[in-house]
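Backbone shapes recur. Consider a single case.
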Amino acid sequence: MVRYLIGHGDYMIGLHAYIVGYLVDMIGRYTLMVGHREDMVGRHSFMIGRSLSIKKGPSLYRIAPYY
């Protein structure tokens, strides 16, 4: 009976560790989602910057020869 209780205690500790691990995993996934969102914002701003530089680029090249 005592051995069963010890075994049950180990099982409860294992279950607790599993729940904590699961919560950490959920937090990790959430931060990954947030990070991915920030990454998307970064890429979006990079694309905007790139499109602006492409739009500005030809006009600068057009002006340059006259100087």
